[in-house]
Amino acid sequence: NGIITAANLTNNTTCTVNFAINTYTVSFVSNNTNYGTVADASKTVNHGSSTSTTITPKTGYHYASLSCTGGSVSGSTVTVSNVTDNITCTVNFAINTYTVSFVSNNTNYGIYQFWYNLGAKRVVPARELSIAEITEIKNNFIICHEMKIGKKRN
After folding, report:
1. 141 Cβ neighbours under 8 A, 6+ residues apart
2. Count of CB atoms within 10 A of residue 26's CB?
3. Phi-psi sector, 116: left (phi>0), alpha (psi -120 to 50), beta
4. Which of these, 42, 92, 121, 138, is most buried using a 10 Å CB contact count?
């Protein structure tokens, strides 16, 4: 409570008061250890200070986001600044995703529907399409607007 009471003093007396800074625990966790790891599980930090740790996504995964107060990420380093309470930081890793394109020699709408049903987002014909072929695809391929149909990139 900050009050010191000295009773029955008969002489000059020296009182020594020792103060200690408040310390807090900053915990670091991965949302899934199969996706990535955090170097330090927890660190003890003085009031108002900062701490950091290293994160490492596993092959096929990447850092996605950080959930904690006062936390930031730069490269593979998580830093928590101005710590004034116990904090838990969750590092969220996510699986990498890739776009796959297929080249088709067929030019009728059925082939585009086939690749779309398999999850393709882009089909590149092996040759330029005629106006009639493009019209057939647009008229018969109901979800044509969701799939890119065009030239192969160099």
Report:
1. 109, 112, 113, 116, 147
2. 25
3. alpha
4. 42
pLDDT at residue 154 is higher than 80:
no
Distances (CA, A) of 124 to 13, 44, 99, 143, 150: 92, 56, 13, 16, 5
> Regarding beta strands 36-38 and 77-80, do their DSSP bridges make them parallel or antiparallel, or are they unpaired?
unpaired
Distance CA 57, CA 120 (A): 27
pLDDT tens sequence across 105-128: 666 667 777 777 777 777 777 677
Cβ–Cβ under 8 Å, residues 84 and 47: yes
Dihedral pair phi/psi, residue 139, rounded to 5°: -75, -30
Cα R_g (the chain), whole angstroms: 31
- Rounded to two decimals, the pTM is 0.61
> Hey, what are 154's tokens?
């160099």
75 backbone φψ class: left, alpha, beta (φ>0; ψ -120 to 50): left
Q: What is the pLDDT of residue 147?
A: 60
Tell me the backbone φ, ψ of residue 133, rounded to 5 degrees.
-65, -40
CA max distance for the chain: 112
